[in-house]
Amino acid sequence: MTVWNYTVWIATVNSTGVYPGSTTHVDKNDEIETYRTQVREFLEANTVSNPSYDDSRKFFMNLADAGLGGTVYAKEFGGAGLTKAHDRVFREEASKFPFMGGEFIISHGMCLPVLNDFGTDEQKKSFMPDVIAGRTLWCQMFSEPGAGSDVASLQTKAMKDGDEWIINGQKVWTTLAHMSDYGVLIARTNPEVAKHAGISMFIVPMNAPGVEIRPIHQIDGGKHFNEVFFTDLRVPADHLLGELNNGWNQATAMLMYERVAIGTVGSGKINQPVFKTLKAAAEANDRLSDPVVRQQMMEIYSMETTKALMALRTRAEMKAGKAPGPAGSLGKLFGSKIHWRMRDILMNIGGPATMAWSPDAVAGNELSRQTLNSFQSSIAGGTDEIQKNIIGDRVLGLPRDISVDKGVPFNELRKSS
């Protein structure tokens, strides 16, 4: 069956009751089911277990070549130009196969929707096709040494010089900066207004002169995060993303996308990945019959099931046309709680193997990595404390803390760095 543009298809069926090119009545679900089959066949042929970065990149390139990449994004910007119904089907089918997103979560889950929401048509045409197809990898550059939880206190500045912006400053904890082709950066463009009001967003080529990337060495031997320094970095004026001095509102939208991306990974179905990790560890250590361990594992199973249901609800709201809101913080915070609880249980099951490894090993074993990496879940994407503030303020309607710098121009604030 020919796969028609869904919007045109619906309009045709609504007016005639007949599928285009046919003389019989056809249920609109037939088109979706044809698409489902196409997606399933693609996933069967293109997914692999434990994918590497190259595997993920090849996956997205093939996805774009097959006309399936960027499901809901316009074709003129490299997407498939399909509907949210198609996106739901894709996620449902993808959840049955190994997760191929890997290092592209930030590119696809955060940078891509922000480009689509705030970019000019020229920016979308220039950048989105390569993002969707995995030809470029993007990072997010918000946090600074003196502006972590309070990102609006950032001091990286951008000054207009003719048809260019000159950027000076520093970012920290930038995930995958050392691998990225581009980054979305926020910088101060007007220090004479309140700190939230004078921020703008930019597209930055990571290989440009004036960009220095220094990997941060992690306790597990990895180098996932980075410090990034900008020294008289010049970017074209048309690399301003969105409106001048509207960067805080755009950054807030991007953070919401981030929390949804983190909190709803694998949300196409009800799943329990941490439970499976614990079960494998219990089996390997002959602890599966231990009643205490079994009780702890079922605690995690229940928590993950609840989180998956929350993620499905968040995705359903987005499919209904709602922008991601503060409810995304619920899934993000709950995911952090799951990983903190997992760490305690994993250490109980695996013993010393979850905390240390042989000095001659290149990197820690899988149990050690799981234990050590669990700490980042309460930091990356906004700390647990920040998520609680967001939930209290915007979900529960509790009164906010007193803000001593409200309405004070940034250049009059007392700064710690």
Widest β-sheet, arrangement of strands? 1-4-5-8
Strand content: 5-15%
Helix and strand string, N-terminal first?
Answer: HHHHHHEEEEEEEEHHHHHH
What is the CA–CA distance across the termini? 63 Å
Structure description:
There is one protein chain. This protein is an alpha+beta fold and 417 residues long. It has 3 domains: 6-100, Orthogonal Bundle (Butyryl-Coa Dehydrogenase, subunit A, domain 1); 138-250, Butyryl-CoA Dehydrogenase, subunit A, domain 2, CATH 2.40.110; 264-382, no CATH class. It has helices spanning 6-16, 29-46, 53-65, 84-94, 105-118, 121-132, 247-263, 273-284, 291-319, 328-350, 366-373, 384-395, and strands spanning 138-141, 157-161, 164-171, 182-188, 199-205, 211-216, 225-236, 240-241. Helix 2 runs parallel beside helix 4 (84-94) and helix 10 (328-350) packs antiparallel against helix 12 (384-395).
List keywords for this structure.
12% strand, Butyryl-Coa Dehydrogenase, subunit A, domain 1, 417 residues, globular, four-stranded mixed beta sheet, alpha+beta, single chain, Butyryl-CoA Dehydrogenase, subunit A, domain 2, 8 strands, disordered N terminus
